[in-house]
Amino acid sequence: MRYSNFLSGLRVLDLSQFVPGPYATQILADMGADVLKVEPPTRDPLLDLSADCSSGGVGDLYELLNAGKRIVCIDLKSSDGRAAFSEFVRKTDVLLESYRPGVMERLGLAYHAVKEINPSTVYCSLSGYGQTGPYQHRAGHDINYLAMTGALSAMGPSSKPSPAFPPMSDYGGALQAASSILGALFHRERTGRGTFIDIAMADTVLAWQAYGLANMISSENKCGKKNNRESWLLNGGAACYNIYKTLDEQFIAIGAIEHKFWKNFCNAIEKPGWILRQNERKPQKLLISDVATVISRKSMSDWDLVLSKVDCCYHPVLGFGDILHLGQIRERKVVCSEGKKIEMRSPVWIDETPPLERSSVKKVSIEEAMMNWKG
After folding, report:
1. Any domain includes 332
2. How far apart are CA 150 and CA 161, in angstroms?
3. What is the total count of domains within the chain?
4. Which of 28, 42, 84, 276, by CA, is between 20 and 30 Å from 323?
């Protein structure tokens, strides 16, 4: 069974922009869904953020996120555009939109209107703060959602929070949307009914904060200490799970959470006396400093010769230019390169078969799109 056949015959209308929605529908396209991305005459603003994007051209990031789809331009503010779009709604299985709450209502394309045309539609609204609450109409991006949910307070050095890369809520919201759509489609198979799905990117990130909230509840400062950076096991407060600078200004990452890995690491760097220090009170500033001093005495390549042979959860910190030549990445075939061309594929192997090449994004006319969706 091929991954690209899982959703064969499924039709998806994608009214999203930037990263979250397009990545969600690309997941569906990878599984064989026929995704038609509907863009306004002003085009997807992601094009203006994409690298190497020239006037009227197609940017690299835009191409990577929309590979495997067809693109059609429809002016949903015009009566002709809405009439054409309604025809696509009649034939679609899924509709995903990522406008701010209220926009689809003003266009006459909210869920209740779409349901009248096609009651079996799985309709997913993916927004920043969701369709309810005092923040529902507020503008935002990943950095704002992380700030609201407490996540940003735990990221980066103690002196200042650092933005996440890539944007966590964008990709997390996309994954939540895709998985929820698949669940709704399974429900439709049993009931014949469509579903309205309301996903907020802020909610998605908030749902990931069990670790931070658990630490807050169990800590001495239950009032909500604002600066928890470099204080916990997983955000820089522990020596066994940290990043260290080497002699040549490179970095290595150690993730030796389990005692056996920490023991192997300490023995490998000839510091067996540190084995019993793993559970010192956090933040472990002194132990982190001690490890940093030792690591700073050798280059990254020298440490790689030592630690790559040791079972201690180690890896050098690689740049994007380095990863394309890494044997593991070449073997898994999620990212492929030829000259200056980069190709990304689904990160899923099925029945020992590697991910397949995605087709290039293709622009089509309304007439062409209707012909493709005929029947």
Report:
1. no
2. 11
3. 2
4. 28
The residues that bridge with 364 in the sheet, in sequence order, are 72
What are the distances in angstroms from CA 365 to CA 38, 55, 63, 190, 369?
A: 11, 20, 18, 35, 6
Whether this model's pTM surpasses 0.85: yes
Of 301, 317, 333, which residue is a domain's last?
317
Rounded CA-CA distance 195/187 in Å is 9
Residues 180 and 261 in one domain: no
| Residue 141: active-site member | yes
Structure confidence at residue 217 (pLDDT): 81
- Which one of the listed residues 14, 30, 34, 170 is annotated catalytic? 170
Rounded CA-CA distance 236/156 in Å is: 8
From the candidates 141, 187, 290, 304, give the one annotated as an active-site residue. 141
CA 360 vs. chain centroid, Å, equals 21
**Domain coverage including residue 163:** 3-206+363-372
Position 215 in a domain: no
Nearest-10 crossing angle of helices 168-191, 20-30: 50
pLDDT (tens digit, 9 = 90+) per residue, 307-363? 999 999 999 999 999 999 999 999 999 999 887 788 999 999 999 999 999 999 999
